[in-house]
Specification:
The complex is a heterodimer of chains A (328) and B (328). Chain A has 14 helices and two strands, in the order αααααααββααααααα. Chain A has 328 residues and is an all-alpha fold. Chain B has 328 residues and is of the alpha/beta class.
Chain lengths: 328, 328
């Protein structure tokens, strides 16, 4: 298991370096940073001086090494547009996105598994058919439409929930949380539901099909032949086997939930990283874009690692290591 | 067999409702198994051997349905019991062993957990008592170092060892009858004999009856007291093992026995039954074996023969009592 973990980590680092290279190339191809920083009236000498000072005259492998070194310490330079350190900007926006994404993932996983098991067990019931039909909407409707629909119903018509922003937040160290105030919690509801809906339906359908598959397995038949109750068979024997593939997908989806909260954040004007990125793209703010790219890559690599480790918890076949089947 | 039989199957008929009409998979199957008796059931794939076993333990899956006849266990009718009562009988009164030990055990639970849950489902045992009982069972089926192995997962056991665990599970609650559906087919030849010997010994010491479904005539000759030969959903011949093997009355049984290589006599060629068993949707009107039978008379294609006494056995053939020579 140890060797396996080391290998996973090494692979993750390799991915990060590859992404760093792409992020680094953006600086060279998307606009000229010197022109961006000095404006149009700068003299040729000013430009050369700044190029020298920024290290832009060094050969590119040296620059890349510097970029990686800086990135490893969370340093991505200064935003062209906001003239603030990118690391500060990210630190400021991170809590909003993390709270939104983690809550969405929890909601999606919890209700996804719950409903998936329900529709798998009651395959032909009216409620199951209704849930399955509604889940089709979740899979096929674009996220922003669901968000706008929710805003129309709960903010415009019913006036129960705020339509944008995080509400009041409380600072705990550098972390700002909306969970401790009522307006903060209220503000979270709609964005969380919007972001969770697609994942929820996906996980639900996955759990359902996996569960139906597992219920056909020999060991389920044997469990029945042993006289175990149907509920024990479904919730203990079948569900545990269902969870292995579900964790993979749910884990990988958590990565994309955090990474691509962009649409939801835009619809609800949520002050998170996604909104920061969208603004950066509009103004070709390369340092911010590069930092966001690295952030997304890091999130994916880390969730992948966690998923790999979760396998060991769920599937004893991977756990054995030294112990192998004794011959007959 | 003066005392009441453990299992009594009378006129068991099982249909599959399909889109193209009803297929009769079992047609008036009748037999009994006495206390402590081993009944071997042989026949080609699709003859209805396994289906008979599944019907007895009440696990026939849709679209299959028992449409006629009755099954009695210790005199009590069990084919029409409500699911809850049938579940109490499964494992407690009738145990079942499936073909493939590799897939019969749930891969994500320790074998100890699977044993104790079976024990606790049927017997009023505490957790510690159940564990103690589980260890005793593992000793009985010949698992070395059971105190340690009880906490192992199925994948840590070899095929033969897993089948031993499966036998322990089937015998856990002390059933009166074991339905063993090809218990050795999936195993190494070298292990097969061990498993059969074990099963035979355990059932003998406990007085458990066995319905042993197999392709292997050698296993039948070695293990069974009586044997039933099935063909196209019916019993072709049933009787004491020695009689059926030495003096088969039904031409199909004769063909099967002719296909067994003998050690003591030199045979140039093993006999072979030409043709194949009819599909369920095209079973001929008279005797189902008639199209393949070398001895068929006109009556065979018109009237269906019922089981009649012929020597010590009973056979479903119009010529069962006609004097015919037995091929060497």
């Amino acid at each position: 298991m140890f060797a396996y973990s080391i290998r996973s980590i090494a692979q993750g680092l390799l991915v990060l370096v590859a992404v760093a290279f792409i992020a680094f190339s953006m600086f060279r191809f998307v606009g000229d940073p010197v022109a961006n920083m000095l404006g149009q009236e700068a003299t040729l000498q000013d430009r050369q001086e700044l190029s020298e000072r920024l290290g832009l005259n060094d050969p590119w492998p040296v620059q890349f090494a510097q970029f990686i070194g800086n990135a490893a310490t969370g340093e991505f330079g200064v935003s062209y547009r906001q003239a603030r350190k990118v690391s500060d900007l990210i630190k400021e926006r991170l809590p909003a996105t993390v709270e939104l994404a983690v809550l969405s993932a929890l909601v999606a996983t919890f209700f996804g598994v719950l409903l998936g098991v329900y529709v798998a067990i009651n395959r032909t019931g009216f409620l199951s058919n209704a849930i399955m039909s509604i889940s089709l909407i979740g899979v096929s409707l674009p996220t922003f439409l669901i968000g706008i629909g929710l805003i129309y119903i709960f903010a415009v018509e019913l006036r129960w929930l705020p339509s944008f922003g995080r509400g009041e937040t409380v600072k705990i160290g550098w972390w700002s949380t909306g969970l401790l105030t009522e307006s903060g919690r209220k503000s979270l509801i709609m964005p969380v539901l919007t972001l969770a809906f697609f994942q929820l339906t996906l996980i639900m359908r996955l759990v359902r099909s996996e569960m139906l598959e597992v219920m056909r397995a020999d060991f389920i038949r044997f469990a029945r032949a042993r006289g175990l109750g149907e509920r024990v068979i479904e919730l203990r024997h079948a569900l545990r086997n269902t969870l292995v593939p579900v964790v993979t997908i749910a884990g990988l989806q958590l990565g994309s939930v955090i990474a691509f909260a962009i649409v939801t954040e835009t619809v609800f004007q949520w002050p998170g990283l996604g909104a920061l990125f969208v603004n950066a793209v509009q103004f070709a703010d390369v340092p911010v874009m590069a930092a966001y790219l690295m952030f997304v890559a890091a999130v994916f690599v880390i969730t992948n690692l966690i998923v790999d480790l979760l396998y060991f918890l769920l599937d004893p076949r991977l756990r054995t290591g030294g112990r192998t089947a004794k011959g007959h | 067999m003066t005392e009441k039989p453990v299992l009594e199957v009378k006129g068991l008929t099982l249909d599959f409702a399909t889109r193209r009409g009803t297929l009769r998979a079992l047609d008036g199957v009748s037999f009994t198994i006495g206390r402590g008796e081993v009944l071997g059931v042989v026949g080609e794939s699709g003859a209805g051997k396994s289906l008979t076993g599944t019907a007895i333990i009440g696990l026939v899956e849709r679209p299959g349905r028992i449409t006629g006849g009755e099954i009695r266990l210790n005199g009590q009718r069990i084919d029409n019991l409500p699911p809850k009562e049938m579940r109490a009988i499964r494992g407690r009164k009738i145990g079942m062993i499936f073909q493939d030990p590799l897939t019969s055990l749930n891969p994500v639970f320790r074998i100890g957990d699977q044993l104790t849950e079976t024990l606790q489902a049927h017997l009023p045992l505490s957790k510690a008592e159940a564990r103690q009982r589980a260890i005793e069972l593992l000793i009985e089926v010949g698992i070395p170092a059971p105190e340690k192995r009880i906490d192992g997962y199925p994948h840590e056991f070899s095929g033969g060892m897993r089948q031993r665990v499966v036998i322990a599970l089937a015998l856990a609650a002390g059933p009166d009858l074991i339905v063993a559906d090809e218990p050795t087919t999936a195993l190494d030849v070298s292990v097969q004999a061990q498993i059969i010997t074990l099963l035979k010994r355990l059932c003998r010491t406990r007085g458990t009856s066995v319905m042993l479904i197999t392709h292997d005539m050698g296993v039948i000759a070695e293990t069974a007291d009586r044997v039933a030969v099935m063909y196209a959903g019916r019993i072709a011949e049933i009787g004491p093992v020695a009689d059926v093997i030495r003096h088969p009355r039904h031409p199909y049984a004769r063909g099967l026995m002719g296909a067994i290589p003998a050690l003591d006599t030199r045979v140039k060629r093993l006999t072979q039954i030409s043709g194949s068993m009819p599909r369920l949707d095209s079973i001929p009107k008279g005797c189902a074996f008639q199209p393949r039978c070398t001895m068929a008379i006109p009556r065979c294609s018109l009237e269906r023969p019922e089981l009649v006494q012929a020597g010590a056995s009973r056979a479903a053939c119009w010529l069962a009592n006609a004097e015919t020579e037995v091929p060497a």
